[in-house]
């Protein structure tokens, strides 16, 4: 199966070169020219890896990395023109799998990309979170109850994933909103509470008596660690 790569890069000449080179190596490359477009594309489609520029016109690449990591384990190769080693350290601490300073040789980009893809595939079992009868599949962006896929929008899945990855911790509405705002905030034209009610309708045995996503009055929501 052909690996899908998301390239987030505002330099069109560089993006065209990378797309052509990786395409010639057998990859399918989708290009986004800024962070917002890249995050929105990542929220809609499944990718095997991301090549992410650190310097973007609308937001810092580190912020893009943080938002991707809040919702998915997609391998990230960060491109940086900065000479400051601290930026690379921060990028790795925020979840980037590797970095490559500009200018770079296309062959090195390809080698590093293949390496993070291999590491990602070797740990693919981590893509599925299991809580009793409930499975949350990061790679497929799908929630399954008793093996049956449950109907969730992309935003609702992102919200469920954010809760599940912090199971046992009370998450305020503000924190949840920040974790899942990969698309422009207007995408949440309804409140967090409405999305939670629809998630409950999809994954709870009785949405009126939830045992998976629990309301903590005055504080937010908590995703139960122990489930049947």
Q: What would the keywords be for this entry?
A:
single chain; 228 residues; alpha/beta; four-stranded antiparallel β-sheet; 12 strands; 21% strand; elongated
Uncertain runs are 182-189
Main beta sheet: 5 strands, parallel
Oligomer: single chain
Termini gap: 35 Å
Strand order of the largest sheet: 2-1-3-4-5
Order of helices and strands: EHEHEHEHEHEEEEHEHHEE
Structural class: alpha/beta
| Share of helical residues | 40-55%
Beta-strand portion reads 15-25%
Could you say which overall geometry the principal axes of the C-alpha atoms support? elongated
User: Treating each run of at least 4 consecutive H or I residues as one helix, how many helices?
Assistant: 8
Structural Rg: 18 Å
Number of strands: 12
Overall pLDDT: 85
